[in-house]
C-alpha cells in the first residue's frame, strides 16, 4: 500500500472512531426468502404490474384467447413467433414466421409472442433461454410489443432458486434474457423513456 493511501485510510479510521459499531447482519446466500402472505403466482402478478406491464391470469383453455385479446388491445396484427408458438396457438394472431428476419424486418412487425423458461415472483422477472417457444434473442428485443406466456408452475419465489433451476437444467450455459417490465431508461433529470432498449409494451399472460 502506498504511503498516501495509508495516510488517507488512517484519517478515515480516526474520523470514524467515535461511531457506534455496526452490528453484523446474518445472511446465508441461497436461503429461502418466501413471498410473505401471497403465494408465488400472486406475488409475481403484483410485481409485474408494479413495472407498468400488463398481466392477466387465465386457465389453460383460455390461453389462446388471452393472447389474441392482448394483441388486439394494442392493435398488433402482424406478429412474429417461432414455430412452437405458432403450432400451439395457430388462431391467436396473423403470424409471421421468423425466417432469420433482419432487424428492419422485425421493426416492421407489430409484436412478438414468446413463452418463458422461469419467472421470479419477488422481482417480477421473466427469464428466456431462447429454446422452443422463445425464438432467438432479437425477437424479444426489437418488436415494440412483447406478449409473454408464463406457466404458473414456472414461477419460483426468488433469484437464487431461479438460478439453481437454470443450473440444474443446464440452461445456464445458454444466452439468457432477463426481463423485468417493459424496456425503460431515465436521463440525468430522471425523465422516464420507454422502448429505447426493447419493447415499449410488455403483456404477461400467466397460465394455470
Automatic annotation (TrEMBL):
Source superkingdom: Bacteria
InterPro entries (UniProt xref): FTHF_cligase-like_sf, LUD_dom, NagB/RpiA_transferase-like
SUPFAM superfamilies listed in its UniProt record: NagB/RpiA/CoA transferase-like
Domain LUD residues, every copy: 101-207
Pfam families membership: LUD_dom (PF02589)
Cited PANTHER family: LACTATE UTILIZATION PROTEIN C
Protein name: Lactate utilization protein C
Lineage: Bacteria, Bacillati, Actinomycetota, Actinomycetes, Mycobacteriales
Amino acid at each position: 500500500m502506498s504511503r498516501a493511501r495509508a495516510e488517507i485510510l488512517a484519517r478515515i479510521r480516526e474520523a470514524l472512531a467515535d461511531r457506534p459499531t455496526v452490528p453484523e447482519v446474518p445472511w446465508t446466500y441461497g436461503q429461502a426468502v418466501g413471498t410473505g402472505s401471497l403465494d408465488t403466482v400472486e406475488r409475481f402478478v403484483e410485481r409485474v404490474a408494479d413495472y407498468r406491464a400488463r398481466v392477466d391470469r387465465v386457465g389453460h383453455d383460455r390461453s389462446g384467447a388471452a393472447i389474441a385479446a392482448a394483441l388486439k388491445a394494442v392493435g398488433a396484427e402482424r406478429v412474429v413467433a417461432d414455430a412452437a408458438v405458432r403450432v400451439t396457438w395457430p388462431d391467436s394472431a396473423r403470424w409471421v414466421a421468423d425466417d432469420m428476419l433482419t432487424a428492419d424486418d422485425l421493426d416492421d412487425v407489430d409484436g412478438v409472442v414468446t413463452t418463458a423458461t422461469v419467472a421470479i415472483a419477488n422481482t417480477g422477472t421473466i427469464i428466456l433461454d431462447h429454446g422452443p417457444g422463445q425464438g432467438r434473442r432479437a425477437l424479444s428485443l426489437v418488436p415494440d410489443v412483447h406478449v409473454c406466456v408464463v406457466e404458473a408452475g414456472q414461477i419460483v419465489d426468488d433469484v437464487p432458486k431461479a438460478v439453481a433451476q437454470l443450473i440444474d437444467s443446464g440452461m445456464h450455459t445458454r444466452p439468457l434474457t432477463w426481463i423485468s417490465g417493459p424496456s425503460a431508461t431515465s436521463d440525468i433529470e430522471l425523465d422516464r423513456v420507454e422502448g429505447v432498449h426493447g419493447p415499449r409494451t410488455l403483456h404477461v399472460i400467466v397460465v394455470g
